């Protein structure tokens, strides 16, 4: 049958439509120029009122609206200048966290955009499993804890968390008062002030951020402070302070977007809590104890409820005084006396013993855990080998294989002398014609560890040279180096196993054809990089992170063991997504970004600070010791799979292995927020108890205690282990020793507890009574007796477990080392 002309025309138009639109995909494009959150004015001649980074972000303000419209016009102009109108469709313009847009277009159009000046990256959209980042879910807060306080929009209400850190980036959406939350009413009981930025004359506070001050007099006096880069204000020039503040009390449900991908939604542990900033850390030199002590003092005077310290001394004090009486810990003792709950990071000196930088029993010392979310990736070589690695990136295009080209084979000129070109930090040193369309193979130089090299710069190099992807291969062991996945916009992978790097290099060398002078003639090695964007969840979590500092705690600079269990508790501290200061320099891979995924006990501490705020909200009259007890006695020693928690450790030649964790790795165990809200029994302690503890330390100068604390020692003879803490530690047990613990029922009803013990056979552990009934609000004493049966020269680890008939469980870890009399 003959086709009518109009019918033919319609079919032809349908064919053209499918040609133009049917094969299209959605791409996310980022372009040069600051988004609203970073904008400081003066970009591309734009003359509207600049958005002040120190002012509360008001997305309806004239300045924000004008600049957002300016960015959107730029997006449209770029698309119209490169692509034919009608062959693409712009879906969204992004103004606030990234400067870019989402567009439905063909792969050829995407390639044209990718090559255009001013385009930072073009990424094909993909499905990513929605995850919060990620520890609130891992810890059970949304379902088990927040509902008891009125939901996430009430969790931590009117509790003030003070952060002694590197400041804050107040324009970040994690600290915005416009993020799906009711306005914050004034909190008259908090007396802190909000500094005015000297450059903009704007306040740092917005209701969520309730106080902001900086302390640098000691740094200035030492000649270390540079106002041009350190900011003589609470503004975070490092990134660390914004990160810790967001973990503790950042807004709930903030999208984490980077390189065109969303990595879940971030939330603080207590998303409704207020933030008080006390800046003491600076970009280049860290900080000084004098400034830290001044900040602690000010925070206590201002009226914070919880104080988070992701800072600490570099080592135990060199003076003769005990670790517990250095100015830092003495100031914190005063804070606790004033009713402030103090949280401090344990330190990042692990996995070696006696590396803690947090010493005192009045401080909650937090170790870092690896949670259940891991980012893995792999490289598939042309010979069929599959090499595991780290690569938080998309897969190579079409999941196809591409030729591998080593940076050493594509060098330009003689600039090798000045730079190390093999770490791919400078694209101008490499031959673009040879790299383009191939996977660039780079080395991991010492510059990554001690210099400015970063995986992010390798990604930029690969993108600027038109590479299909990149590989960074570690050829030498760097003891103590922690390798983390880094979000990048182009396919990339870091091979951290030196033996796998050797396999890769052997394959490359065998496959690359060279002339008589060793110059490459043909690159025949091939490979493909898998998609590393989606995390895998494991039941073998939590684990104690390799870097987390370990006990035993020490009582003086001679590193004699203390009769105090440290750390106290374990909380997530590995690969934690949270807010970042775009001008922060602490992590080279996140310069200019609004979020960062970093690790450290610095990240673990604010988890506990936020959870403590939730406990304080529910029990406003509880002392710091009571809150600490609730957290410790309800902690778990089991991972999500019901197995004993394990600790990352070295097993010769820096090879990581897993061993069963001990209290010197994790204290009482991993935090259990839901149980901590209802602990049943608590072990309380007051300021005079801590003074008695200090006075009981053998060889201590009582006059020094009086000078530093203002309190005198009485004549009562005690032992450090007599302090009423939710743990028992005796570092030098001879014969038999008896200690007592006073437990108070904080539940609403009477409860009867049966008491059992567990201890290795070399130490006998007995308790009296073996059952007790405790009225609501009443206290009962527990007598604990430890006896040496045999001397092993090592510590023994046990526990006292109290099970109540109304469901409460209270666990007290017991640590002792036996000696002959």
UniProtKB/TrEMBL annotation:
Domain PA stretches: 420-496
PROSITE patterns documented for this protein: SUBTILASE (PS51892), SUBTILASE_ASP (PS00136), SUBTILASE_SER (PS00138)
Signal peptide, first to last residue: 1-22
Inhibitor I9 domain mapped to chain residues: 70-129
Chief localisation class: secreted
InterPro entries for the chain: PA_domain, Peptidase_S8/S53_dom, Peptidase_S8/S53_dom_sf, Peptidase_S8_Asp-AS, Peptidase_S8_Ser-AS, Peptidase_S8_subtilisin-rel, Peptidases_S8_3, S8pro/Inhibitor_I9
UniProt cross-references to Pfam families, sorted A to Z: fn3_6 (PF17766), Inhibitor_I9 (PF05922), PA (PF02225), Peptidase_S8 (PF00082)
An annotated GO cellular component: extracellular region
Limits of the Peptidase S8/S53 domain: 156-638
Active site (catalytic residues): 165 (charge relay system), 240 (charge relay system), 602 (charge relay system)
Biological process according to GO: proteolysis
Sequence ranges assigned to domain Subtilisin-like protease fibronectin type-III in this UniProt record: 722-815
Subcellular location: Secreted
Keyword set includes Glycoprotein: yes
GO terms assigned for molecular function: serine-type endopeptidase activity
Keywords: Glycoprotein, Hydrolase, Protease, Serine protease, Signal
Family: Belongs to the peptidase S8 family.
UniProt-recorded name of the protein: Subtilisin-like protease SBT2.6
Organism: Ananas comosus (Pineapple)
Gene: LOC109711807
């Amino acid at each position: 049958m003959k086709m009518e002309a109009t019918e033919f025309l319609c079919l032809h138009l349908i064919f053209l439509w499918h040609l133009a639109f049917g094969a299209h995909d959605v791409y996310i494009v980022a372009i040069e120029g600051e988004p609203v959150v970073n904008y400081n004015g003066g970009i591309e001649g734009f003359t509207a009122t600049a958005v002040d980074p120190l002012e509360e972000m008001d997305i309806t303000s004239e300045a924000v609206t004008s600049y957002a419209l300016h960015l959107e016009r730029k997006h449209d102009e770029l698309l119209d200048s490169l692509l034919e109108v009608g062959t693409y469709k712009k879906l969204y313009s992004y103004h606030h966290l990234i400067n870019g847009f989402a567009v439905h277009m063909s792969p050829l159009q995407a390639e044209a955009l990718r090559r255009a000046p001013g385009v930072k990256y073009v990424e094909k959209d993909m499905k990513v499993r929605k995850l919060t980042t990620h520890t609130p879910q891992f810890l059970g807060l949304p379902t088990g804890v927040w509902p008891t306080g009125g939901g996430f929009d009430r969790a931590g209400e009117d509790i003030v968390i003070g952060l002694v850190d590197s400041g804050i980036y107040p324009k970040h959406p994690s600290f915005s008062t416009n993020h799906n939350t009711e306005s914050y009413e004034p909190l008259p009981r908090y007396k802190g002030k909000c500094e005015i930025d000297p450059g903009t004359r704007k306040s740092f506070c917005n209701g969520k951020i309730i106080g902001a001050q900086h302390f640098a007099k000691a740094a200035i006096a030492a000649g270390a402070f540079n106002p041009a880069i350190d900011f003589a204000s609470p503004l975070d020039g490092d990134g660390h302070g914004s990160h810790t503040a967001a973990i503790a009390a950042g807004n709930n449900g903030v999208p984490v977007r980077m390189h065109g991908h969303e990595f879940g939604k971030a939330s603080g542990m207590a998303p409704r809590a207020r933030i008080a900033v006390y800046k003491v850390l600076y970009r280049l030199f860290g900080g000084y104890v004098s400034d830290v002590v001044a900040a602690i003092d000010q925070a206590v005077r201002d009226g914070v409820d919880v104080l988070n310290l992701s800072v600490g001394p570099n080592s135990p004090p060199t003076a003769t005084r005990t670790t517990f009486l250095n100015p830092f810990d003495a100031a914190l003792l005063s804070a606790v006396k004033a009713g402030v709950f103090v949280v401090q990071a344990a330190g990042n000196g692990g996995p070696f013993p006696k590396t803690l930088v947090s010493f005192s029993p009045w401080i909650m010392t937090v170790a870092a855990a690896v949670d259940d979310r891991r980012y893995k990736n792999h490289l598939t070589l042309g010979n069929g080998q599959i090499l595991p690695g780290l690569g938080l990136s998309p897969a190579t295009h079409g999941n196809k294989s591409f030729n591998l080209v080593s940076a050493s084979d594509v060098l330009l000129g003689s600039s090798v002398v000045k730079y190390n070109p093999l770490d791919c930090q400078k694209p101008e040193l490499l031959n673009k014609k040879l790299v383009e369309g191939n996977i660039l193979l780079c080395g991991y130089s010492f510059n990554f560890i001690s210099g400015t090299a970063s995986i992010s710069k390798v990604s930029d190099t690969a993108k600027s040279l038109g590479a299909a992807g990149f590989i960074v291969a570690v050829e030498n062991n760097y003891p103590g180096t922690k390798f983390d996945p880094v979000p990048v916009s182009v396919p990339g992978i870091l091979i951290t196993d030196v033996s796998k790097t050797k396999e890769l290099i052997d394959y490359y060398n065998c496959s690359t054809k060279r002339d008589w002078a060793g110059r490459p003639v043909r690159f025949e090695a091939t490979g493909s990089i898998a998609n590393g964007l989606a995390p895998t969840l494991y039941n073998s979590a939590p684990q104690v992170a390799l870097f987390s500092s370990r006990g035993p705690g020490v009582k003086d600079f001679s590193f004699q063991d203390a009769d105090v269990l440290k750390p106290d508790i374990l909380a997530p501290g590995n690969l934690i997504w949270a807010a970042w200061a775009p001008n922060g320099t602490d992590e080279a891979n996140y310069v200019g970004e609004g979020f960062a995924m970093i690790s450290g006990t610095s990240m673990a501490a604010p988890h506990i600070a936020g959870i403590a705020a939730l406990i304080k909200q529910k029990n406003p009259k509880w002392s710091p010791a009571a809150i600490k007890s609730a957290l410790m006695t309800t902690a778990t020693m089991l991972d999500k799979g019901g197995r004993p928690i394990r600790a990352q450790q070295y097993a010769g030649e820096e090879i990581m292995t897993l061993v069963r964790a001990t209290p010197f790795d994790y204290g009482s165990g991993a935090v259990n927020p839901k149980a901590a809200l209802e602990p049943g029994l608590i072990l309380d302690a007051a300021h005079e108890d801590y003074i008695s503890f200090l006075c009981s330390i053998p060889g201590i100068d009582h006059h020094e205690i009086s000078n530093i604390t203002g309190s005198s020692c009485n004549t009562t003879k005690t032992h450090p282990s007599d302090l009423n803490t939710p743990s028992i530690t005796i570092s030098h047990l001879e014969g038999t020793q008896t200690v007592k613990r006073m437990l108070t029922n904080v539940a609403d009803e009477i409860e009867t507890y049966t008491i059992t013990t567990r201890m290795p056979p070399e130490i006998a552990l007995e308790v009296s009574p073996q059952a007790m009934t405790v009225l609501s609000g009443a206290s009962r004493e527990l007598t604990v007796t430890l006896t040496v049966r045999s001397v092993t020269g090592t510590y023994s680890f046990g526990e006292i477990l109290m099970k109540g008939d109304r469901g409460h469980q209270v666990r007290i870890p017991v640590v002792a080392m036996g000696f002959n009399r």
